């Protein structure tokens, strides 16, 4: 058959004015059932809420309402058990379900679509789906935070080098470093909660675009689907996809955090660093080099970020030129959102697994922390605090001491007092108290600083802020 051949009669649900059916290509480009079947449970929930409201408003008889409910129960079981026959000719999940309902309960099924359009139906389904996904990702983020907090607690006093420009800067604690990510993932959860609150309005009852002449009760359908209220404008209700874009923006930022952390894991487990080792469960071997242990889960988590960004840019581009209200372009809204949600969810699961399983190698962290004159700032601060030297001058003096240590091939703490006094005579023996990495870290007690006592307090605060049972809405 050529692509232009029509091979069937017009669609039973909208084909009244058509004399022949779509071409094979038209059917393929038009069908969304291949992916929107993921909405089945939400579609059925929306139909139930709509049918009950129609009965309560006297628009549908009790008998028809009951027949619809029973039919929807049956369809739900059929889909869950894999026994439902999805048809591309029926385009999408909405018409697949309605068509099956007609087979099961006859004419009552045809009355379900009273005062409803697929335009408000799909907008409702999609909001319900994204809302569930927000809750699922929030729970995953909480699990990841719990894993990070646990490790941070165990390593509140484990010293590692802190970096800027990936150059050794000042010593920090491993626990402090991990808690930085707990903060990031906490903000991601906050953004998800914000997006959820704005999303939680019901488009159902907006009809195709203009509302309906039937005496429907939009407050009732909104409440029964757990929405806070009906959306105020019918045109906006069917044409808005901000909720999907906000979800994607939020997942894009979250994926950035996952990716940065994954990058650190890759670096930390490399032989040059050797700060951690990842478990067998989250690494792979090489088919050629028997000694290899590759951090593939971290690399793939880092890479999934590209798909999430792509989804955001893709949907922004789909939406940017669309006039009100609904355009079929908007059928292209789903796959990027599904892909972003699936990609992020898998990356979060892998990240939580890697964190739980990883082992730190404190000796390597400690050895690296002492390199690169990481306590130079402590010497400068000491000159300010004890010798009353202005900070800018102290910075210059310290630079000269660092140059001397480099010349001699020793650390700052290994220089003799006489050598240091040769640079500046105000340096006294007490300076040795601040030149070790332990002393440096312990002295960082300002709020938010890296001192082990601070980290222990921060662990407790993070537990009560992030790990207490789910915030109520
Ligand atoms: N499958 C469509 C979508 O995903 C449902 C809405 C169709 N509406 C329409 N007027 N053709 O957007």
Bound molecules: arginine
Determine Rg (CA atoms, Å).
31 Å
Tell me about the largest β-sheet. Answer: 2 strands, antiparallel
Helix content: 55-70%
Overall pLDDT confidence: 95
Map the helices and strands.
Elements: H1 24-30, H2 33-36, H3 40-56, H4 62-80, H5 93-105, H6 107-111, H7 118-154, E1 159-164, E2 167-173, H8 174-199, E3 201-202, H9 218-224, E4 229-230, H10 234-239, H11 242-268, E5 276-277, H12 296-319, H13 334-357, E6 359-360, H14 362-369, H15 376-385, H16 391-408, H17 417-423, H18 437-442, H19 452-466
Parallel strand pairs: 3-4
Antiparallel strand pairs: 1-2, 5-6
The structure holds arginine (ARG).
Arginine (ARG) is lined by residues 32, 36, 92, 118-119, 122, 326, 328, 330-331.
Brief overview:
This protein is mainly alpha-helical and 473 residues long.
Key descriptive features of the protein:
single chain; 473 residues; mainly alpha; two-stranded antiparallel sheet; two-stranded parallel ribbon; 19 helices; 59% helix; elongated; binds arginine
């Amino acid at each position: 058959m050529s692509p232009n051949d029509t091979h069937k009669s017009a669609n039973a649900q909208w084909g009244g004015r058509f004399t022949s059916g779509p071409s094979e290509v038209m059917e393929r480009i038009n069908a969304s059932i291949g992916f929107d079947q993921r909405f089945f449970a939400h579609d059925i929930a929306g139909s139930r809420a709509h049918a009950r409201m129609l009965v309560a408003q006297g628009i549908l008889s009790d008998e028809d309402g009951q027949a619809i409910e029973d039919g929807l129960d049956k369809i739900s079981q059929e889909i869950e058990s894999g026994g439902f026959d999805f048809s591309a000719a029926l385009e999408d999940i909405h018409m697949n379900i309605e068509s099956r309902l007609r087979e099961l309960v006859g004419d009552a099924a045809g009355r379900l679509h009273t005062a409803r359009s697929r335009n408000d139906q799909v907008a409702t389904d999609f909001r319900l789906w994204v809302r569930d996904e927000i809750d699922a990702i929030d729970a995953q983020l909480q699990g990841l935070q719990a894993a990070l907090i646990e490790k941070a607690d165990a390593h509140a006093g484990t010293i590692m080098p802190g970096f800027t420009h990936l150059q050794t800067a000042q010593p920090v604690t491993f626990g402090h470093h991990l808690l930085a990510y707990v903060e990031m993932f906490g903000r991601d959860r906050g953004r998800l909660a914000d997006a959820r609150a704005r999303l939680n309005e019901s488009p159902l009852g907006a009809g195709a675009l203009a509302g309906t002449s039937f005496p429907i009760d939009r407050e009732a359908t909104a409440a029964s689907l757990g929405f806070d209220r009906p959306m105020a404008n019918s045109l906006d209700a069917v044409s808005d996809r901000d909720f999907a874009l906000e979800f994607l923006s939020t997942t894009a930022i979250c994926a950035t955090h996952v990716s940065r952390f994954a990058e650190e894991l890759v670096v930390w487990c490399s032989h040059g660093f050797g700060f951690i080792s990842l478990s067998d469960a989250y690494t792979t071997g090489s088919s050629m080099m028997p000694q290899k242990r590759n951090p593939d889960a971290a690399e793939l988590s880092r890479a999934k970020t590209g798909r999430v960004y792509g989804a955001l840019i893709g949907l922004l581009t789909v939406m940017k030129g669309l006039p009100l209200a609904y355009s079929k372009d908007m059928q292209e809204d789903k796959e990027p959102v599904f892909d972003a949600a699936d990609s992020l969810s898998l990356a979060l699961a892998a990240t939580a697994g890697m964190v739980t399983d990883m082992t730190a190698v404190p000796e390597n962290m400690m050895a690296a922390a002492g390199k690169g004159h990481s306590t130079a700032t402590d010497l400068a601060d000491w000159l300010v605090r004890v010798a009353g030297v202005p900070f800018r001058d102290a910075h210059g003096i310290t630079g000269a001491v660092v140059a001397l240590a480099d010349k001699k091939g020793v650390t700052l703490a290994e220089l003799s007092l006489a050598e240091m006094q040769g640079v500046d005579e105000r340096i006294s023996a007490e300076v040795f108290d601040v030149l070790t990495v332990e002393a440096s870290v312990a002295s960082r007690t300002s709020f938010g600083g890296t001192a082990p006592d601070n980290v222990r307090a921060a662990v407790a605060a993070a537990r009560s802020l992030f790990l207490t049972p789910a915030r109520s809405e």
